[in-house]
Amino acid sequence: MAPKAARPNKASGGAQKQSAGNDPVRLAYANSNISPRESSGRPGTPHRYFDSSHLVSIGTGGVGLSTGDEVLDTGCKAELSKEANSDSQVMFADQVVHRHVNGLCVVTAGETLKKICSSSSPSLSVSSVEFLKEECENQSVGGKKKKHKKAKFARNKHSPKRGDEEKGSANPGDSLAIVKLSDGRKFEFHCCVLGTILEVNRRLLEGTGGNLLVTDPLLDGFLCVILPTGPFPLPRRSIEM
């Protein structure tokens, strides 16, 4: 009688690990280039409030992951890029994501708009902000239920239809917001983080509040707060086979 095959011993590592290629969290960041953002050291800057900050760009193809002192580059440049759509040119730029000590991620538009407006005409400003994502209902940054209903979002043809996706869900490459400048240029910003959107910055929708994206883009002008699914950024072990 042939002997039975021995069962793998989980304690000894006999159980097969999930390959990195099938890791859904890793795959979600496949088109992201994430690198540490150095602190300026100045009082009042974001490093005083967050555990770490990261520069994020969304590209096409390749894997870009922050690995502490090492960055795996996908070839995505930290510069302005353009991509055509059916109506007009929509511009994309690197964003900055802060990671709080409690694990939450604060997604910002980065400093591109600030640099453009400061180097152009003094009259150049943000004319409109449209959120293309909705925050999760009955949630808040502190985990308490909201006292008010969700903000009224400006909806256009880019907006997800109701029922098409779970409210508050976010993938790194999902469109988060469209920002239009007074000269007609449009910028699209991404979610950058895999997880659940707990809060969007309603101040950007009120009157001239959109100009916080120019005057204070890394703090008061933040776009949203996301509870990440899995670590952000991915540790190096997540990309090893």
TrEMBL record:
This protein's GO CC annotations:
nucleus
Residue ranges, annotated region (Disordered)? 1-48, 142-175
Family annotation (InterPro entries):
Abitram
UniProt biased composition (Basic residues): 143-160
Q: What is this protein called?
A: Protein Abitram
| Classification lineage | Eukaryota, Sar, Stramenopiles, Ochrophyta, Bacillariophyta
